[in-house]
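If you are new to this repository, start here. Below is one unmodified record pulled from the training split, so you can see the exact layout before writing a loader.
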Amino acid sequence: MTSRRKLKKNVQGVFDSLVSEFLYVAANTTKADNESLKALIDKILKANNEYITRISHTEPGNVKGFYKKLHTDIKKDVNDIVDEFKKLA
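And here is the target side for that same chain:
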């Protein structure tokens, strides 16, 4: 099992990649609505903070279940964010 520190860095890396990708696309296209893009980036940053906080406070007694749920929640949120971005671009 990886340490919390490595897990936090991986989660941070995923959300940082999303933000940088969205900013790149927004800078190179004129189709994207700036206000909608800002709202989406805010959503990414809030999700990042939420997951970092959740990792810091692991549920005692059900560690394996906690990390499974965390993994599925992150995957779901990332897919939702990407789908919203596809609608904008």
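Two things worth knowing about this chain: The chain has a mean pLDDT of 87. The helical segments are 4-28, 34-56, 63-88.
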